[in-house]
Amino acid sequence: MFQSKIAGIGYYVPKNVYSNNDLKRFMDTSDEWIQERTGIKERRYADRLEETTTTMGIEAAKVAIERAGTTAEEIDFIIFATLSPDYYFPGCGVLLQREMGMKEVGALDIRNQCSGFVYALSVADQFIKTGMYKNILVVGSEKHSFALDYSTRGRAVSVIFGDGAGAVVLQSTTEAGKGILSTHLHADGADAEKLAMYYPGASGGKWLDNKPQWPEQELGGMLMTAEMLEDGTAFPYMDGQTVFKKAVVKFPEVIQEALLKNDLRTTDIDMLVPHQANLRISQFVQKTLGLPDEKVFNNIQRYGNTTAASVPIALCEAWEEGKIKAGDLVCLAAFGAGFTWGSALIRW
Ligand code: ACO
To answer: Does 92 participate in catalysis according to the annotation?
Structure first.
């Protein structure tokens, strides 16, 4: 039986730093409001034209591949998680494959928002456990800054998110008890509209109370209209309080599920790396689980919420800082739009 282990990990964040005070140039906000509600002090924004979700993913992937002691040619499958792809279609996986000069290996794109990386890792783990692939590149990357509403109207959402990418090479191993012990995935579509970007999309507003006025023509023209940019419906929507209430229940639940599956307890966790949704959510989860500060890694203060990239960026930083060592029990957990959530337990 094959196991999968993280053989190499890397991350990339853009150079441009925007502090909370910098955002005051665009909207009515304050450093106090943002820090008190989210813990965020600053975030990175990609170069508007030169950097894309794919290019940031490539930078993270290069580091992960090198640290895994392998090469791009040895990668036999690509999984790319993002909610901010370069194109509506095709996905970023094929762009990464082309730009990195990889072989004609399969490229799968994952659309699970903040839990995208945990979902991607779980899919990769199954492929390795069955013996189908040996070296899978798993990437989480986001360029949020191109599509948020940076006016006062959009401030409750836009101040939270930042750009960046993280990647791992998941490799086949026969060392028993090492690597990914188990992964756990869940979803509940009941609140799908509570954290969402409705347009461009093909729903025509079917699931929404406020249906848009579409052009009067027999076919086509129903992805997005100029009015949507005007009235703000083209931007991501978040019912923050619903997200908060659900997240603080589902994070601990899915972590406990992973521990139970492996006959372990919260005291066995050496490092919890939660999706960096909001520092208040992470602190709530930490308190619920009774974990000390040194066993929970947070970096949202410096990067904001980078959605599918947040878990691999945080995992990589924790490892680089020596906070994760060989033999440690590491728990990854995420919750996000959908709602979708998941966890992964790893013996490092
Ligand atoms: N700066 C200043 N004032 C703001 C800002 C801002 N950036 N954003 C909103 N406000 C104002 C509002 O307009 C409102 O003003 P009013 O009282 O005059 O109407 C006031 O602040 C309070 O607004 P609320 O939306 O009620 O603020 P709340 O206390 O709920 O905090 C927040 C909003 C931070 C989003 C909170 O609901 C929260 O923490 N939710 C969790 C959601 C989250 O963190 N999601 C992360 C992304 S999703 C994920 O990763 C799973």
So the answer is: no
Domain count, the chain: 3
Indicate whether 300 and 313 sit together in one domain: yes
Choose one of 188, 244, 313 to mutate for the ligand 1 pocket test, by most ligand atoms within 8 angstroms of C-beta.
Answer: 244
Tell whether 96 and 19 lie within a shared domain.
Answer: yes
Q: What is the pLDDT of residue 177?
A: 86
pLDDT in tens, 273-323: 999 999 999 999 999 999 999 999 999 999 999 999 999 999 999 999 999
Pocket test for ligand 1, best of 278, 300, 339, 341 (most atoms within 8 A of CB): 278
User: CA–CA separation, 70 vs 66, rounded Å?
Assistant: 6
Give 195's strand partners: 238
Encode pLDDT of 89-103 as tens digits. 999 999 999 999 999
Domain that holds residue 71: 3-173
156 and 183 part of one domain? no
CA 232 to ligand 1 center in whole angstroms: 17
- Enter the tokens of residue 244: 């908060």
Are residues 144 and 67 part of one domain?
A: yes
Closest CA to 9 of 115, 246, 168, 190: 168
Same domain (yes/no): 226, 252: no
Looking at the structure, do residues 248 and 219 belong to the same domain, yes or no?
A: no
Residue 10 β-bridge partners? 167
Whole-angstrom Cα Rg for the chain: 20
